[in-house]
Amino acid sequence: xxxxxxxxxxxxxxxxxxxxxxxxxxxxxxxxxxxxxxxxxxxxxxxxxxxxxxxxxxxxxxxxxxxxxxxxxxxxxxxxxxxxxxxxxxxxxxxxxxxxxxxxxxxxxxxxxxxxxxxxxxxxxxxxxxxxxxxxxxxxxxxxxxxxxxxxxxxxxxxxxxxxxxxxxxxxxxxxxxxxxxxxxxxxxxxxxxxxxxxxxxxxxxxxxxxxxxxxxxxxxxxxxxxxxxxxxxxxxxxxxxxxxxxxxxxxxxxxxxxxxxxxxxxxxxxxxxxxxxxxxxxxxxxxxxxxxxxxxxxxxxx
Length: 303
What we know:
Number of strands: 10
CATH architecture of the largest domain: 3-Layer(aba) Sandwich
Number of domains: 2
Shape: globular
Strand order of the largest sheet: 2-1-3-4
Strand content: 5-15%
CATH topology of the largest domain: Rossmann fold
Largest sheet: 4 strands, parallel
Structural class: alpha/beta
CATH class of the largest domain: Alpha Beta
């Protein structure tokens, strides 16, 4: 016969297991949907729309590109146990190709905008850290830099929440509409700033701007330039040949380039503009703060 001490230990252990398996409870005492996202923009959308009715997780490390992140077995198990798994689609999160996730909880936020997806036009191959290599022919995947597409991704999040918690439809819809208004305002700001640049040639130092450029009618020219290294002379010669044929006013970077690189570009009449993708949660502020900061940095150049 087990002692009272052993029984007490077992009861405590059982209680701990039950608590760990129980759904999260919000301030109103209702169970919250457990939501896992594959990047920060989707985490942000889920938190903005879901409020206290969801508990949102994005477990990728802060120093890894989430598009090429490879979660460990424990993290994959947590995704599998989620109520909703928000994926980006467009070939994002390549680890999804070799992991089985519950179909009922899987929400592809680009499923309804598949006609708008762009195949990468950049002929280079792109190695991201120790992850796999993307080559020409892959779908471009930074969809949310086009505010119109970001609205549709947010709508997919909202619809998924309503399907599982229809009693909170007014709450989810109201919060989605507020986010939609902010994204529409962002879109209008970009239209105002970029209207005079339609058709312009724009060098970019990263292959993430396809949707942004398509939305505002820009003609991208991809380079192999890194923000923390001076490009070799051959790259500068190529740029000079381009400038002879096409005027270039600015070059887009995902992070601040080396000051010497900026100076050499400026001598050619080219300003450097940082437009961040916000795949990962910023150290300060949120997704919309990053998007608005992108606009303001470009405004300084345009003015």
